[in-house]
Amino acid sequence: MSTPNSLRIIAVTSGKGGVGKTNVAVNLAVRLGSAGRKVMLFDADLGLANVDIALGLKPEHSVEQVLNGSCSLQDVLIEGPAGVLIIPAASGVAELADLSPQQHAGLVHAFSELPVPLDTLIVDTAAGIDSSVLTFSAACQEIIIVVCDEPTSITDAYALIKVLHQKHAIQRFQIISNMVDHERAGSKLFEKLCRVADQFLEIQLGYLGYIPRDEYLRRAVRQQEPVVTAFPRSASARAFADVCRQLSATASTPQVGGLSFFMERLMSHPGGSA
Fold it and tell me: Do residues 96 and 64 lie in contact, with contact meaning Cβ atoms separated by under 8 Å?
């Protein structure tokens, strides 16, 4: 799907925490990796790392060490299921939740020197509308917003879309309905968000699909494994496969420039609050 120096860059984000965003990011990355993609998953929740926990990994280093110069980004990389490369964040380090321009520049340099062939970079951001969420989301070519059927989730997802549209002129967003009871419930949730967005914003929302409530998914989370590998025949694993097919069908042209391009965009999209 890509030339040697091209990369599809996808943010996975949400308006509020607790909607299963990181679990969605992890399972999408592993499912794409299982399909033969060369995938990197960047835990960009720089203050509250969760990707390594979701995968039961114990990284020796994190982005914190890259920023303070004690190791390289290549030293930080760890391999997860299906060959997915993980860039773990630091947990509980408040300073990493609001990087300075100099720290952003350090990340740009670190990424530009990373000799790893990739075709897909998934960026798992923090939740909400803090500056780091806006910065990382705006640096990506595509933005997936995870929403569940709760009033606060819908309201906060709309707020995130509004801020990204108004501050960064982003016109298109992809939606995943998570933790719903069935396919129709996922579609209805997407339609709710569309009605609000269509009334007030000139944007385009695409629907990637739904992930059902599933006991196997809960079991996989407790086991610190992706459900797509732990229970590949479960309803949720099949739903992730469907979402990945839809994501591939709506693929944009991969951006030439690879990781350097992503980091340059990161620097050119300073965050901001609502």
Answer: yes
